Amino acid sequence: MNALGRHILVEFYDCSPELMNDVVHIENSMVAAAETAGATVINSTFHHFSPYGVSGVVVIQESHLAIHTWPEYGYAAVDLFTCGDSVDPWVSYTYLKEAFEAGHGSSMELRRGQLNLLKRNDFNLEALRDVSAKPDAELGTITRDVWFTERDENIALSLKHSGNQLYKKDSPFQRVEVFETLAYGNMLTLDGMVMCTQKDEYVYHEMITHVPMFSHTKAKRALVIGGGDGGTVRELLRHEQLDEVTLVEIDELVIEACKLHLPETAVAFDNPRLNLLVEDGIKYIHDCEDGRYDLIIIDSADPVGPGEGLFTAEFYQEVHRCLTPDGVMITQSESPRFNSAVFVEIYETYKRIFGDTKVHCYLAGIPTYPTGTWSFSYCSKGDSHPLLYDKAAAAKFSEAQGLKYYNEDIHAAAFALPNFVKELLADGSKNSIKAYSAESTNEQ
Ligand code: SAM
Questions:
Q1: Core vs surface per residue 292-302: b (16+ CB within 10 A) or e
Q2: Which of 185, 329, 314 shows the shortest CA–CA distance to 262?
C-alpha cells in the first residue's frame, strides 16, 4: 500500500431509528464488524446520549472504527480507519450496513499518510517502546466500556455493564430487559427504567413486606399486585403464619426474565403456598370479593404504562374494599425527592380513602432508584399501626432469616421522616414541591 492507512468515511441512511438508539446493539455490531474484517480489537467505549443518539469508538490494533448516530434521522456517520493491509475495512462496511438495516449507504475512501509525502525519521525505536505495553497474548481480551443510562429530565443514573444483553423482549405492555452490570450484578429494567438489581433488591423487598408483617401479626392471606420479579413474595413466604400468598403480575415476560437471570429474586415462584396469576391487577381487584385479604401490597413500577392505573383513587378504593376490617395496604409510593408532585398527590389520595390518621410513610435507601431515597406507604383500614410491633420477634426473625436490611430498629427508624418529607405530607403546597423536587414538573 502506498499509504499508511485507509480511511473510509461512511454515511448510512434510512437505518432503523430503534437500532440507531440501541447502544448495546451498536457496540456489539461495531466490535463484530472489526473482528469480521480480521482486526484485533483492543477496547471499545460507547455512550448513550440524552434524549437519544449514540457515540462510540472501537480501538483496534490496526487503528479504529468510530460512529455517531442520529436516530431521529435514521442516520449514522461512521469512520473505518485501518492501517497496514491485513484488514479490509470494506468488510466492516458491508457488515455494518446489514447490522444497522441501512436503506442505503454512501462512502468515500481516503488514503491517509501518502508515503511519497512522508519522510521517515530514524530514531531509537526501543527508547520509544512502551514497556508497560501488554504482551500480544493479552490483546484478545478487550475492555468494553458500555453504559446503561436511565435518564430523566434533570437526573440520570449510569451503570457500566458487560455489553452482553442477557435478555431483551417486547411484551404487549413494555420492553423487558436484563443487563449484566459490573457494580450491581444482573439488573431488570422495564421500558428503560431500573426495577431491581441483584446487589440492592433486598432493601425494597424486605421493607415492603416485613414492616407490615410484624405490625399486622394476624395476617393469613396476602395479595401482591405487580412484583413479577418475585422478591416481594420471596420475603412474604418466609412468614409461616401466611396460609395463602397470591401474586398478580400482568406480564409473564417479567417472570421469565427473572427466573432466567435473577434466580435469587425469583426463588419462590414454585412455593406451594403461592398462587401465581398472570393477569391485570386492576381487573383482579375489581372482580375480587369484599374483605378477602389481610394484606395487599402494590409492588408496581412507576405510574406509566401498564402501571398507571395502579396509582388512581378508583383502584385504591377497590383495594380498601377487598381488605378485611383490620387489613393493611402497602404501596411503593415513589420518591419524595425525585418527583415530589406525584408523591404528594398519591398521599392525599390515600388519606381521602383510609383517613388522615391511618396513612403512614416510611423511607429506605435504594442506590439504583432515582435519587436513592424511596418511600412506602402503610395504610390501615382498621386500627393496625406500623409502630405497634413485636420488636423481639422482629429481631429474632431478621437474624434467623439472615436478612440484609430489615431489623427491629430500622423498622421504627424508617418512619422517622426528615422535615422536608413531613412538610410535603403536611401541606403538599406548590411551594414545597418546587422547593424539594429534583425533577421539575410542568404543573409547578
Ligand atoms: N420495585 C419496582 C419499582 O419500584 O419500580 C417494581 C417492581 S415490579 C417489577 C413491577 C411490576 O408491576 C412489573 O413486573 C409490571 O409488569 C407489573 N405491573 C404493571 N402494571 C400492572 C398491572 N396493571 N397489573 C399487574 N402487574 C402490573
A1: bbbbbbbbbbb
A2: 185
pLDDT in tens, 174-230: 999 999 999 999 999 999 899 999 999 999 999 999 999 999 888 999 999 999 999
Pocket test for ligand 1, best of 173, 229, 285, 300 (most atoms within 8 A of CB): 300
| Calculated CA dihedral for residues 414, 417, 421, 426, nearest 10 degrees | 120
Torsion sign, CA atoms 363, 365, 367, 370: positive
Ordered DSSP codes for 200-211: THHHHHHHHHHH
Backbone dihedral region of 342: left (phi > 0), alpha (psi from -120 to 50 degrees) or beta? alpha
What pLDDT score was predicted for residue 143? 62
Length of the chain (residues) = 444
Tell me which amino acid residue 407 is.
N
CA 216 to chain CA mean position, Å: 31
Question: Are 194 and 201 contacting, i.e. CB atoms less than 8 angstroms apart?
Answer: no
pLDDT at 444 (0 to 100): 46
Nearest-angstrom CA–CA distance, 124 and 365: 58
Burial 22-31 (b: 16+ CB within 10 A, else e): bbbbbbbbbb
Q: Which of 81, 55, 80, 58 is nearest to 70 (CA)?
A: 55
Three-state secondary structure call for residue 327: strand
* Cα distance between the two ends of the chain: 64
Supply the pTM of this predicted model. Answer: 0.80
Q: Give residue 118's pLDDT.
A: 85
* Residues at CB less than 6 angstroms from ligand 1: 190, 195-196, 204, 225-229, 248-251, 254, 280-282, 299-301, 306-307, 309-310, 332
- Per-residue pLDDT reduced to its tens digit, 35-80: 999 999 988 888 887 678 899 999 998 999 999 999 999 999 999 9
Q: Are 6 and 84 in contact (CB under 8 A)?
A: no
The b/e string for 232-249 (b: 16+ C-beta within 10 A; e otherwise) is bbbbbbbbeebeebbbbb
Residue 141 reports pLDDT greater than 70: no
Give the number of other CB atoms < 10 A from CB of residue 169: 14
**Residue 326 falls in the annotated catalytic set:** no
**Cell triple for residue 235?**
420475603
Could you give the C-alpha distances from 19 to 14, 22, 68, 73, 75, in angstroms and in order? Answer: 11, 5, 12, 12, 10
